[in-house]
Design goal:
Length: 153
C-alpha cells in the first residue's frame, strides 16, 4: 500500500463515531467523497491527500444547464465562520451541481463539527476558486461538459 494510505490508517482508526475531532473530520471527508472534487491531485494520485491542496478547491469547471460551477476552496469558505455558523450553514446551504448538498445536510452534527475542525487544521485558506458562471458564458478554465446524450435511433 502507498505511504499516503498507511500513514492515514492510525489517524482514521482512532476516530470513532460521535467523536468531535479533526481526525474524525478527515475520516468524514474521505468517506463523504469531499476530496474527489475539492482536493487537487486526489484522483490523479490514487487517493493521496496533499496537505497543500487538501480541500483548497479545484479550478476545473463543471458545465451544464446551471452554467459552470467550481468545487469551492472550503478553507476559504470556513475562514470567517465559527463552528456554530458552519453547522448551521452545512445543514441548510444550497449549491449548484454536481455538489452533493444532500449528503452534507444529512451528516450528524458531531461529524459536521469534526469536518469543521479538520478544514480549520489545514492551514492557510489560499485563493478562492473562480466564480460560478451563468448558462451560456464561456469559461476561461478547463471544464467538463455534463449533459445527457440520447441514444441514437
Ligand atoms: C462531484 C463533485 C463534488 C463533491 C463530491 C463534493 N463537492 Fe462540494 N462543491 C462542488 C461544487 C462544484 C461546488 C460549487 C457549487 C456552486 O457553485 O454552487 C461545491 C460547493 C461546496 C460548498 C459550498 C462552499 C461555499 O463557500 O459556498 C461546500 C460547503 C461543499 N461543497 C462541501 C462539500 C463537502 C463537505 C463534501 C463531501 C461530503 C463535498 N463538498 C463534496 C463539488 C463537489
Amino acid at each position: 500500500m502507498a505511504a499516503c494510505c498507511l500513514a492515514a490508517i492510525p489517524v482514521i482508526a482512532a476516530a470513532q463515531s460521535g467523536d468531535v475531532s479533526a481526525a474524525r473530520g478527515l475520516y468524514v471527508s474521505i468517506i463523504g467523497g469531499c476530496h474527489d472534487c475539492h482536493t487537487g491531485g486526489y484522483n490523479e494520485s490514487g487517493g493521496k491527500i496533499d496537505p497543500a491542496t487538501a480541500l483548497a478547491g479545484v479550478p476545473l469547471g463543471y458545465s451544464g444547464p446551471w452554467g459552470t460551477s467550481y468545487a469551492s476552496n472550503l478553507r476559504d469558505s470556513v475562514k470567517d465562520m465559527s463552528e456554530e455558523e458552519f453547522v448551521k450553514f452545512a445543514k441548510t446551504f444550497t449549491a449548484k451541481p454536481p455538489m452533493p448538498v444532500y449528503n452534507v445536510h444529512a451528516m450528524e452534527e458531531t461529524d459536521l463539527r469534526s469536518l469543521y475542525l479538520y478544514i480549520k487544521s489545514l492551514g492557510s485558506p489560499g485563493a478562492p476558486m473562480p466564480e460560478a458562471l451563468p448558462p451560456g458564458a464561456e469559461p476561461a478554465t478547463p471544464y467538463i461538459v455534463m449533459e445527457p446524450v440520447m441514444p441514437k435511433g
